């Protein structure tokens, strides 16, 4: 980034949020990070005082978000960049997974991110500048069996990001949906919520997926520090992208999905256009 900026990043205790905060601090920026405990707050603030600041906030505490953001604007300064990073993955066969898990998945990954954007936008709009990065996932473009609630939440955040970007671009605000592939964070480890198995009919399709994810946790291809550098580069860009994939796995899988989608659209084109008139 050319000049020193203030970044507000949700979920800086580990993974992408922590890596992005560290890279931004190393580049001379100020980072206000959200965490969920006093201990995590102390840890983060000791990283690079006085430029590493933390606020205790669960992004599902919707009633608290506006006042936390207003307090940051008043006491730290103008938030140049909001990074909606806080999120987690729910894993489970859809038929086996209670609706309460879907609500929680959407509360954190979608409603939390939207509440943060709604809190920051009045300030960015007033200034006529700002950049919002929403960390979605390749699971916001492609799907796998066993993570339907997660994919649903990330598709939702992709959609919200893209539409919001069209609304606020004329106001000087950029919105980028960042969709990582598999990275070495706590996502598939301590952070994942796994619904227990109950219906034997899904054993063949789901059990290998769960096993593979458990075995791969900690050994994924992607390096979060390199993702952080890529995100800093787009924050710096004159015309940031609306969508950014991170990782060659995401690139290959999303390209295949787009090609398969195009093939299916072509195969059924005559039925599609038969409804006009
Ligand atoms: P992570 O290491 O588990 O970090 C998740 C962060 O989000 C933690 O700081 C966590 O805080 C915070 N968080 C979770 N729920 C929260 C809530 N309700 N309120 C506030 N903070 C909350 O995993 P990560 O991979 O870096 O995850 C960051 C984002 O990347 C997520 O949105 C995830 O879906 C996305 N993503 C990850 C991958 C991957 O392969 N790693 C791929 C695509 C997308 P606590 O420490 O308090 O739990």
UniProtKB/TrEMBL annotation:
**PROSITE patterns on file:** ADH_SHORT (PS00061)
Report if keyword Repeat is assigned: no
Asked if the record carries the keyword Glycoprotein, the reply is no
Kindly provide the name given to this protein in its UniProt entry. 3-phenylpropionate-dihydrodiol/cinnamic acid-dihydrodiol dehydrogenase
Key words, A-Z: Oxidoreductase
Give a GO molecular function annotation for the protein. Answer: 2,3-dihydroxy-2,3-dihydro-phenylpropionate dehydrogenase activity
Organism of origin is: Paraburkholderia hiiakae
Classification via InterPro entries:
NAD(P)-bd_dom_sf, Sc_DH/Rdtase_CS, SDR_fam, SDR_oxidoreductase
What protein family does this chain belong to? Answer: Belongs to the short-chain dehydrogenases/reductases (SDR) family.
* Pfam families, per database record: adh_short (PF00106)
According to its UniProt record, the EC number is: 1.3.1.87
Question: What's the domain of life for this entry?
Answer: Bacteria
């Amino acid at each position: 980034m050319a000049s020193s900026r203030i970044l507000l990043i949700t979920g800086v205790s580990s993974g992408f949020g922590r890596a992005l905060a560290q890279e931004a601090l190393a580049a001379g920026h100020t980072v206000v990070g959200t965490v969920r405990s006093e201990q995590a707050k102390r840890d983060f603030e000791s990283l690079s005082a006085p430029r590493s600041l933390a606020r205790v906030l669960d992004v599902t505490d919707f009633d608290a978000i506006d006042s936390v953001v207003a307090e940051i604007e008043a006491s730290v300064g103008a938030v140049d960049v909001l990074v909606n990073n806080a999120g987690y993955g729910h894993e489970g066969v859809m038929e086996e997974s209670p609706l309460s898990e879907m609500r929680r998945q959407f509360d954190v990954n979608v409603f939390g991110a939207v509440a943060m954007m709604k809190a920051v936008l009045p300030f960015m709009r007033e200034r006529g500048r700002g950049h919002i990065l929403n960390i979605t996932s390749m699971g916001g473009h492609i799907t796998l069996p066993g993570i339907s609630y997660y994919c649903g939440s990330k598709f939702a955040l992709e959609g919200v990001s893209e539409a919001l970007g069209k609304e606020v671009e004329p106001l000087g605000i950029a919105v980028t949906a960042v969709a990582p592939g598999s990275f070495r964070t706590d996502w598939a480890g301590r952070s994942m919520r796994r619904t227990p198995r109950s219906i034997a009919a899904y054993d063949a399709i789901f059990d290998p997926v769960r096993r593979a994810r458990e075995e791969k946790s900690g050994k994924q291809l992607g390096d979060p520090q390199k993702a952080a550098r890529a995100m800093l580069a787009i924050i710096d860009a004159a015309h940031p992208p609306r969508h950014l994939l991170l990782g060659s796995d995401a690139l290959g899988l999303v390209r295949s999905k787009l090609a398969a989608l195009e093939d299916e659209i072509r195969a059924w084109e005559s039925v599609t256009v038969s409804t006009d008139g």
